[in-house]
Amino acid sequence: MKKVLLTGANGFIGRHTIPFLTKLGYEVHAICYPDNSDLSEGKNIFLHRCNLLNMEEQKQLLIEVKPTHLLHFAWYAVPGKYWTSLENLRWVQASMELLINFVENGGKRAVFAGTCAEYDWDYGYCIEGITPIRPQTLYGTCKNSLREIMVQFSKQTGVSSAWGRIFYLYGPFEEQSRFIPSVINSLLLNKPANCSHGRQIRDFLYVEDVASAFVALLQSEVQGAVNIASGIPISLKEVVSKIGEKLKRKDLIRLGTITVSSSEPPLLVADVRRLAKEVGWQPKYDLDRGLEQTIHWWRNYLKV
Fold first, then answer.
1. 122-143, pLDDT tens digit by residue?
2. Which of 75, 141, 189, 291 has the smallest number of Cβ neighbours within 10 A?
3. Is this prediction's pTM over 0.85?
4. Using DSSP, how many helices (H) and how many strands (E) does the chain show?
């Protein structure tokens, strides 16, 4: 049986991959740390409490599980802090150890989560292998450095690997302070939704689709970086307008009340031809359906 070690299993993306993995016949070994996870064990689902930053704990878990596949999402992700935190350096180190332990225990295929912050944002439209790599933050630099190490490590050891570059995602369990949930929550609670001018163009993908794309990438033999996105450009003010229409509270939207940072690019959209043609993956949700699912989840969460 195929065994997958899933890190960040109780995180925003990781939790959504579990149904896709079990459906494909994987024995899922999910790392939940700290142990405040609302996940539960079931048929072919095993939970592990392991601090991956503790190298001895990590090594012992890999010896115990001996996974054939590795899907790595765990990272420092505190909103507003992860861009510059020195914790990024610790996660590069832990992730390198994870790769070594994975291969030493018979691992065959590894997929890690990367970020659109690896690209040079001056270009706006991002294509794997063509758009220059020029991260402007410690987070993006650490992710890209790990990717480069992973490429050489794979050549040296023969392990199959891929790198999923995440763009903008949304959906159930997202941190409340982020863009889409902050607007939804404000309108659900009948409060003004303060926003920037909203002219920035972005590329959004529903989190369940992000999860299924990563599982499809894990299943494939595709190597290297692959953009995980919709490939569909949309302005932030259009997204806000859709949310306002669905909740019938467009009157509470306040465009232009938040200053836009000079470092924020006007355009950031992914080319997804590699994901579609080489991985063979297509999204299940368009933005309207994804927003409806997200609003429904937050309505239940807030009990409004």
1. 999 999 999 999 999 999 999 9
2. 189
3. yes
4. 9, 14
